Structure formats: structure tokens, C-alpha cells
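Write out this protein's structure.
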Amino acid sequence: MVDRGRAVPRPGPVRLGTEVRERPRPVRDPHLLPPRGERRVRGLLEPGTQLLRWDHPIPRHALSLPIRPGEGSDRLDRRAVVSRIFISLLMVIAVAGTGLGETVTILYTNDIHTRVEQLPGLSAAIEDERAAASGPVLLFDSGDTWQDYRVPIYAVWGAERTVEWMNTVGYDAMALGNHDLYYGPDRLAHFVQTADFPVLCANLRPVAGVKPPFTPYTFVQAGGLHGLVIGLITDEDLPYLDYPWLTYLDPAEALAAVLDEEEADKADLVVVLGHLPVAAAKRIAQRVPGIDVFLTGHSHELTETPVHVGKTVILQTGAFGQRLGILTLTVDSSGEVTKAVNSFRTIEKTPVATDRGYIRLGIIGGLTLALLLLLF
């Protein structure tokens, strides 16, 4: 360090006794900061200010930072604290950003009508969409799945195969369709018991003392979301004579009654599986608020553009398993759907063996003919 109390002797001759010797001038590296430059810097500083010094030579391009005595460590501490606060804020923002919305994918079908030739293609599409989804996936059907009188061979053979297929691909719930009732109470009860998923209908009320094979609603879990799924059915072409113990209720009133129940308040997402036309779903959504998704059926409509009534999105895939509906929802922490993106995947037919169907059809025809001969 330079002694501030004494002048620094300049290089020059030095007298040693009677001999005069020339003081050696120091050889300076041109890349080092010269003392005069250092003194010029000091002249610009306030009294008492020190230069940051190093034990090794300071290159010319290096900066000398003025630091007041006792302030260096304080400044470094403050900078460290500010840096840590800034990093913490970034982490909080990042974590909060991940909770801004949870994504759930809803795959849906309606009015398959036991078209068994479509089932392999639907299976492949469902598997692909599950693999591609970034979040939890739910699978629903809006009814008229187990029966179709227009294709007798499917009616006598395809119903059981369709129920088995639905179990295999993992449906989460299904709405009861009017055609699903056509086999009669016993056959309906058999199918419902065979199914590994709930069959839903909230607007067919049994008389006192009768327990129907279906249930009004169910709850599903999709990641962190708690979903309420409710089933509704149309009043068109219902086989009332086969079910005298059932009373048909107005769909909107039945739906409102379910939403008024205490358990419904726990739901983050409300999905209605309605086996009724899109127009009927629109009227219901206008009367009953609080529906997030309304998946319809019965009318065999294709909603290429989703129908919106308030915050409710109404959809339908057409019929006969020709398409798989894919609805991706983003739901925020308060349970509000902030984004809904819908698309359809077309399903190609797959040839299937129908020998069992023909055999059953022949047996049924033979028994019917024998019965007629006995009667007449």
C-alpha cells in the first residue's frame, strides 16, 4: 500500500556515500494500469475513498470499483437478498401458473345401436386419444347403445357384445336411451348388472317400493377435478306398457332437483348425458344454469360447431359409431371452464363375423313359427 503521509520518491539518481548511482526505473507491463492513471482516478474520488486492490497486477481493461470503507459487504449482502427474493418470486409465479387450469379430455359416443362393425375402430381411436391426452380422460355414452330394431341380427346378438366391449374400453358412465328399454325390464336389469359402469337416468321415477336398475347420477374423479354426471332421457318412443312402474318427469325439473342436492355443490364439473335432441338440450340449458357440458343423442345430429347456451357447451356425434367425439376442457381452480376445444374422429367399418347372430335369428324364428302353429 502507498503511504499517504510521505511523498513517493521519483525515480532518479541516488547518492550512496561518494558514489552516485542511477536509480533503476521499473519496467512496466504496458497492459497494467500505470500509477499516474491510478492517481488521476484518485483525484476524482472523495477523500477517504479507497480503490479495490488486488495482490496481483490489474490489467488495463479491468475496472477499479470505488468502495467506501465498511460498505462492501453490506452491498453484497443486499444484492444477494434481492437476488433471492427475485428468484423466489419467479418460482411462485411458475408454480401458480401450473395451477391456473387443469386439462381434462372427454371422449363421447351416442346412438351406437349395436353396430358391432364399428367397435374395433372405436377401440383403436379411444386408445390413441388416451395416449395423446396430457391430462385425465373420461369416456361417456349418451344412450341407444344396446338395441336397434332396424337390424334384427344386431338386435339378437350385438347387445351383449356391445356391453362387453364397453367394459373392455372402460366407459365411465352411460345415459339410458329409449331403445335400451325395448328388451324389457328383465333384460335391461341383466345388461345393467353386466356393465362395469353406471347407467344413468334422472327423469324416470319409479313408484314407491320399486328400485330401478339405473341411477340418476354419479360422481367421477378426473385428476384433481370432482365431476357430477347426470343422465336424462327423451319422452319420444318410450315403451310405457313394459314399464308401468316408471313415471316420466320433465327433464329440466329433474335436472334442477339433482343440482339442488347438497352433494352437487362439491362438483367442480357438471356433465349431462342426455338422450334427447340438441334443441331440447338448448331449452333445458336455458332453464337450468350450472351445466358445463351437455352430451346429447337420439336425434342423430352432428354438431360440427359446438352449440353454446351461456357457459354450457352442447355436443353430439351423429350415430352408429361413425365418429368419436373429443372434447378438451381447461378448468380453473374455481371450477370454471375457461377453454373448450371439440373435434371428431371418423371411424372406419371393420368386417365382423355374424354367424352367431344368424344362428340366434334362426332359432328365434323357428320358435316363433312353432308357437304360431301350436296356437292355430
